[in-house]
Batch of 2 targets.
Target 1
Amino acid sequence: MKKIIGSAVLVILAVFLIRGFWDSQLTPVSSEKETKSFVITKGGSFSEVSKKLSDEGLIKSSFFFTFFAKQSGLSDKIQSGTFKLSPSMSAEEILKTITGNPVDDWVTLLEGWRIEEMAEKLNSEFRIQNSEFLKIAKEGYMFPDTYLFPKDYSAEQIAKIMMDNFEKKYTEALRTKIKSLGLSEDQGVILASIVEREARSYEARRMVASILLKRLKIGMGLNADATVQYATGYQPQEKSWWKRHLTKEDLRVESHYNTYIYSGLPPTPIANPSLSSLQAVADADLSIPYLYYYHDSKGNSYYAKTLDEHNQNIANNP
């Protein structure tokens, strides 16, 4: 009987010791109340977040924190964005914070979008008024990227960050290569915006950039469908700024952006190009023998030296 009582006491003591150790791992790291910004990226796993919290001295143990979160049913509830955390917060307080509302949030603005599309996205995510953003935004120079913006940022602050990002991405080396092709820096951006909408992969973009630049050099019309799509504007039935199927009437629309009826480059960019498209223009090769390109419904690319060859490519590869 004494052995049984003794064993029971040992078990109880062990439970209390384990419980005490468990609780100690969830208490604040220190009494330091100064907060720091903790960023959680989109798509990050909970284990990655937990390790980062531990590495930054905000929790005592990533293992115990992860176990506690799973036990609480919150391990799949973490939000992306920036959170204000301090070492004086308990594991429970930190978990509650990172599963709540961040002080800022991520937003992805896609390559090849017009500024109107960017305005719509910013309005839905940050309640930025479309008209306010459009007054400030400059087509072609709002670099498409994934951004982390404070929720109280103004349209002006957001636009400045995007334009500053463009200036960083459009390096002096790129500008120099583009100018060596006989284009101004702005013309390089205009051409890149067309290339962005006309091709998907870098190699296809480089070929399209080469062909369009070659057409420019010989005074041939660019005849780029993307410029007509830009000219026709928003399509209510498709709920899109880019008309899917252009008609013969569309190709005759009166607009200086219509490169089927006006020679040379459009007055301004037609979209916001990616770094890939800017690089494709910089790497354009005027020695290629082609003047025509065609992309089939599967995304395959075909190039031709003559209009007859081009029409044959279209007929053979719907």
Target 2
Amino acid sequence: MTSQQQPIGWLGSPPGARWPNDSEELDANPNPFIRYRSMLWSHHRALEVGLTDGAFVDIVRRLDDAVAEVDGKGFRDTPLVDLTKVGSIIGHTGGLLGKDETGNVSGTHKARHLFGLALHLEVGDVPTDTPLVIASCGNAALAAAVVARAAGRPLTIHVPAWADTTVLAKLDDLGAHVIICERRRNETGDPCVLRSRELVADGAVPFTCQGTENLMTIDGGRTLGFELASDLAGVGTDECRLFIQVGGGALASSSIQALSEAVDLGVLADNPRLYAVQSEGCAPLNRAFMIVQQLDDPCAAITSHDNSDIMWPWDDPVSLATGILDDIVYDWQPIVGAMMTGGGAPVVVTEAELADAHRLVNSHTSVGADPTGTAGLAGLLAAQRHNLVDNDTVVVLLTGIER
């Protein structure tokens, strides 16, 4: 696939992007937004408007310090953990590694996306009274509230009627304005997203983890993929299979874009083979993949804005993994493109596999992830059931802390 054929939602590297000298940069700059700054569009934008590299670093540190005041910690490289014991229990004969995001700001990867957006607002000199808006039922909302509070910016959060009361209380403590959204009669799609779009039309900035609402949310999310590329290069893993749970899709989209950039720069020899994981109670990505796979011109489908006949809302989403219950995978096109070109596939997991993966991680590791956060491992269980993996090295993303 050429650069002119990249899927809708593919951000790519900014001009002059440079991979850091990992051995030096990690010790000096444990914050990924500093370590990988040359790869970020916010850094490129800062230089475009006349800021120096040092000035950008100062902005990152100032905002990160403010995040630490709100959340108790700032951004640091998150660990790649050995899950060999879990692998042995489930009969996986290859290596098994997990990228542990549960110790990240607000306990999830979501904060990467929002911090990246906050940097764009800072370098773009967007007035601090400009309203921000997000639609979320949990982790993304908490991450947005933490980062917006640290940045001193007003945030409105649209949540579904079934949102967890504990999460709502935390959002209130963080000073966010929360609006509960009921589904309107004959309305299709997520009502929270629809209400958020109404505020955007009135001038609010989409402060979201959906690339279709704000493409630059992919920018900060890519730091996870950059770290993973450095981790894999460090342990000498040239080939692996990567299982990523998919809700709205920005996690997988950001990660695979970053890994692809790492391959382009010679950090990795090849892209990991991607397996996008959804639950049987909400699997619009699997449905879209099957449709695209049968088309005469799949490339046209993933590069077209007209795709309502490929991706449409899932009826009555339900799952133990509530964080991947988006009825539409907004950032589906880069994910489907990566699976089709790289030999991967979507994986649909059962509720029993979700429960088993959650139990395995919490019983046999020190990672306290929730059922959404362990859904990647559930994908491996399903892949074993379908004989998709053998003695390959597998990487899963452990993305959300048990609250």
